[in-house]
Amino acid sequence: MTTDQNLMLYTKLAGFRLVVLAHRFGCDSDFSRELHDRLLEGLDAAIARIQGMMALERSVLAGEDEIAEYQLQGETEIFGRFTINLLDDLEIDDDTHEYRINGGNWINALTADDGGVEIEFPTLVGLNGEEFGSLASIIMDITQEMDIPVRAVRAI
């Protein structure tokens, strides 16, 4: 990405952040406020990544740092996979049959009894439009304009 592209990304992310912040004041439930807060945290993280990439670009252009170009390539790849999780994040280790939710402790999914061995992982269920409230259209815009997926699922 070029400096101009990163500046444009930064500007759009900051704009979305302001829109989410403005919508947060109209929240009528704790759950809605939590969703807004999590989206703000995700946007802040994306903004911080862009700022880091812009600092690396300045180092490359100034010729100050020999490895800055490689770091910039890595940061660009990482940003390409950036995702904002509003609720639960589920990690599954198929080799050990363990899972964890939101970076917590690993939990064994194996159970055994007289009937045999069973492996039962939690599943992720998406929120419906009513649960999203005013965030639904904002999330859609972020996903379409910024190409940053916003996931809102809960583990059950």
TrEMBL record:
- So which domain of life are we looking at? Bacteria
What is the organism of origin for this protein?
A: Rhizobium indicum
**Entry keyword set:** Plasmid
Q: What is this protein called?
A: Uncharacterized protein
